[in-house]
Amino acid sequence: MVKPWSGWRRSPTNNTASDRGSHPELRKVKMKRMAVMVAALSLIATSWAQGDDTKDGRKPMQTVNDSGMVAPALEKYAQGPLAELWKRPGLTPRDRSIVTISALIARNQTIEMPYYFNLALDNGVKPREISEIITHLAFYSGWANAMSAVAVAKEVFAERKIGADQLPPASPALLPLDEDAEVKRATAVEQQFGKVAPGIVHYTADVLFRDLWLRPDLAPRDRSLVTVSALIASGQVAQITYHLNRAMDNGLTQEQAGEVVTHLAFYAGWPNAFSALPVVKDVFEKRPH
Amino acid sequence: MVKPWSGWRRSPTNNTASDRGSHPELRKVKMKRMAVMVAALSLIATSWAQGDDTKDGRKPMQTVNDSGMVAPALEKYAQGPLAELWKRPGLTPRDRSIVTISALIARNQTIEMPYYFNLALDNGVKPREISEIITHLAFYSGWANAMSAVAVAKEVFAERKIGADQLPPASPALLPLDEDAEVKRATAVEQQFGKVAPGIVHYTADVLFRDLWLRPDLAPRDRSLVTVSALIASGQVAQITYHLNRAMDNGLTQEQAGEVVTHLAFYAGWPNAFSALPVVKDVFEKRPH
Amino acid sequence: MVKPWSGWRRSPTNNTASDRGSHPELRKVKMKRMAVMVAALSLIATSWAQGDDTKDGRKPMQTVNDSGMVAPALEKYAQGPLAELWKRPGLTPRDRSIVTISALIARNQTIEMPYYFNLALDNGVKPREISEIITHLAFYSGWANAMSAVAVAKEVFAERKIGADQLPPASPALLPLDEDAEVKRATAVEQQFGKVAPGIVHYTADVLFRDLWLRPDLAPRDRSLVTVSALIASGQVAQITYHLNRAMDNGLTQEQAGEVVTHLAFYAGWPNAFSALPVVKDVFEKRPH
Lengths: 289, 289, 289
Fold this sequence. Notes:
The structure is a homotrimer of 289-residue chains. Chain A has 289 residues and is mainly alpha-helical. The first copy, chain A, is built from 13 helices and no strands. Chain A has helices at 12-19, 24-48, 72-85, 93-106, 113-122, 127-140, 143-159, 179-193, 198-209, 220-233, 240-249, 254-268, 270-286. In chain A, helix 5 packs across helix 7 (143-159). Chains in contact: A-B, A-C, B-C.
């Protein structure tokens, strides 16, 4: 088997020289190697290369340079409804950025992260908040999702000279705990699942609700916004009721919650949004007015 | 920390020279850097490099060159049931290609896209139809999924010299709308969710059903096939009923729909297929005969 | 449009030379190209580069070198609860490795695979078992997921000099079939879905239960562990009941099953674990004691 990577180790100058007399088939193989690398890199480049053209806030969507060569309609939609979406009054651009990067991390869509991490910083999301969003989603979307996001955020932070002084400490003084509410929550979960999976009951209390949720560098309302966005974006319908109620207890308004669903229709697809709607409606109707 | 990428910027010739007296540990680090790039590229290479061996239509599956070094059984299954699948009479190779690339885009599996985009073109799916499939799934699978697909399709189109003249315009003359049916649909959704999330109700009418679905470069029946395939492939069971009915209204037969589920068992996994089956069965039974 | 890849073909030495007098904007473009490649590679590098620091079994988690520059808390959690998780008595490190790599393959999270494939081998999972896990998940997670895993495993195997002699044959002598049980299963599925999708009914019998499940190089209990882990990790709640019962018939204990859910809370996110819990509880309660 031809190793598709063996070419890149040699000096390109030598490469050109040695190609001169080579068999056409060999050249074809080399072209193919080329194409492979091009494909690999352009995947990432798509979003990355557009990073700093959009810091002015006037183009809060992927400018989709490439789409003209594949799907010209996408550019039309980007400049139309997608641009309009970010200006809708129900949710601030900062909130929309939190919703969007939560969806991308939850769905592990790394190639769009550089663009939207930069946009989030431009929209007023602090580096320490992005740091906490990633940490939070390590638990709500899975450890590997957070690791992927770390790899991207590291580059974005480095490019913007964001240093350790702008990051949250590993172990900060925690926010005060509502001990009664937590005991009530823990007791209910213990009764339901304590004999099924004692480990998760233990970690849910000790690591999540007595630690992660109390970290001060992301406001509880924003932490809830991250959680609800991740749940909707990854189709976790069964977990929305608890966390949307918690989000609204933490200050998310009904209008904002509805607008989160609208925003996620674009970033996580219409089906995820429509599967969430009946649950969101049910939560709205059952909450005390 | 060793920067895993610092090596590739230097000339490989210099690299070899400077390696000569270097500490074994350092060399190990450099080997590791190499391995990192190799891994990155070979991931993409797997499918890409096999692109043009299969244009004859006789090997309509991933030839899985690499699997012999990891899982020899996969090659056996590729040459057996997977090859057989593409020849089953219930669905044409063109339809199977539409189902497959819809599943890959919905699941964001970019590394298989080059191979299957090429196969789709070989099986008679037009470039303008691939363009519309990606545009359609920007809304039904999420914006980032479409952006990834664009990056891959761009390379495939370039390699096959597919230019702008073969792509659909951004704003074509739309197909005629069944105004009564659309008003009925919109009214039902407005009554259900108009107060929960007015934004999504608005965009569902204006962007999806009064625009996207009327774009002429993908037949309504094929657009439905794309939608249903994406729903099944991403486990969106709750949205299947509406769209499978719409697909069958648009001309998809019962035999074809059943064969879509069979096809997706291979490309989206048995669990997604089996979770779809009860809903598909229910739709079949409730439709007027 | 600037081609983001055109730089890498030239010798870096020439690059430096020709840069000297170039326009600042051009340099910026070149820096950007650099950044693109760095981002592409560091994504993969994150997990890969940490491979051999952890073969002693004392650090059975991602050491997350990079997280200090983005999310210092992640390193704390990695050294705390995540390290503790792998030492919990309910499940052996070997089983935890099987659960983890099944989750990564099911979720197509390639960038964490090199690290965890290596860890699995260190924890006593045989190369032939990893081979069978990938083959098994080609059907339970989808063909493309297996292809991605093959591309990563190939590199891991090559680095560890694991050759064809350590892999299972494509067509081994199969384990004996419980003909009565299989006929019963097949009949039930035929009655339910035989008219809806005859193809999937056919392949489920012939390819899965009369072939794949009988391959001898992964014990039925482990094959069930792989299946259940993949189902929970990808949110396939509706398919858990059948396969968890089968897993327990194959020897998975209740304590182990509960610990699988706990383990997957970390590797597939809390929501997937909590959505699985009611089903797991229900299976436990309904089984004969």
